[in-house]
Design brief:
- The protein is an alpha/beta fold.
- The chain has one domain: Rossmann fold (3-Layer(aba) Sandwich), CATH 3.40.50.720.
- It is about 35% helix and about 20% strand.
- It has seven helices and eight strands.
- Helix 3 links the parallel strand 4 and strand 5 (about 85-90).
- The radius of gyration is 16 Å and the shape is globular.
- The model has no long low-confidence stretch (mean pLDDT about 95).
- Bound molecules: NADP nicotinamide-adenine-dinucleotide phosphate.
């Protein structure tokens, strides 16, 4: 059984762990705080283990379920330990002070910035799925679309398998360069959730291609 290592114990860690377990994978949760990781893993059940950030990840796939700045710090600290592994970047590098732009330079993306810091095969995925929808495994009765972008075919295929086995629909979004569009797209979606005029959007929508 494949193991998925998830760094972080917050909302997205819980959502992705839930889908990974539904996909028949085992899950390893790593936190800065061993107790927090143990508590979160215990809540997920017997197929989840825990540890601390800094230990060698058990999984071939490592999910960075942390803020963008933390993701950069973590891959830098891991260095060559992540060589050969697939790292999933789920971050949305929104400027939360202004809530009016991304913090990455035009033409770049969080995923590409992270990829420049690690020998791992970086794949963008799950940045357009809100945490609650991942726990539920659907939203509005619809299957979740998960956009997967990356430069390594084997890595994107492994992530697509995880997505499909977890009951979602993987959409091959192209090279890692498409992360810019995925991050911009989700930034727009986030502003819609925060808009009081759109009161039915409550951080529970899903970005989906229909037709
Ligand atoms: N929430 C969503 O619906 C959603 C959807 C798509 C993408 N995302 C992206 O997913 C990522 C996580 O979001 P979230 O909502 O899950 O956040 P969250 O609930 O606040 O959880 C963040 C996690 O990151 C950990 N963390 C923060 N700084 C760290 C560091 N320097 N080293 C190690 N761990 C660190 C926190 O650990 P401590 O508990 O130790 O502080 C916590 O476990 C973000 O990049 C966000 O943009 C979120």
């Amino acid at each position: 059984m494949n193991t998925i290592t998830i760094i972080g114990t917050g909302n997205m860690a819980n959502g992705i762990a839930t889908r990974a377990l539904a996909a028949g994978r085992t899950v390893e949760l790593l936190s800065r705080d061993a107790g927090r990781a143990a508590t979160a893993a215990a809540a997920l059940g017997a197929q989840a283990t825990s540890g601390v950030v800094g230990q060698t990840p058990a999984g071939d796939i490592v999910v960075l379920a942390v803020p963008f700045d933390a993701a950069k710090e973590i891959v830098t600290a891991y260095g060559d330990t992540l060589a050969g592994k697939t790292v999933i970047d789920i971050t949305n590098p929104v400027n939360f002070e202004t809530f009016d732009s991304l913090v990455v330079a035009p033409g770049s993306s969080a995923a590409e910035e992270i990829a420049a810091l690690t020998p791992a095969k970086v794949v963008k995925a799950f940045n357009t799925t809100f945490a609650g929808t991942l726990v539920a495994g659907e939203t509005g009765g619809q299957t979740l679309d998960v956009f997967v972008a990356g430069d390594n075919a084997e890595a994107t295929a492994a992530v697509a398998s995880l997505v499909a086995d977890g009951g979602m629909r993987p959409i091959a979004a192209g090279s890692l360069k498409r992360s810019r569009e995925l991050e911009g797209f989700q930034f727009l979606v986030m502003t819609l959730q925060a808009n009081p005029a759109l009161e039915t959007f409550n951080w529970n929508t899903g970005l989906k291609i229909v037709g």
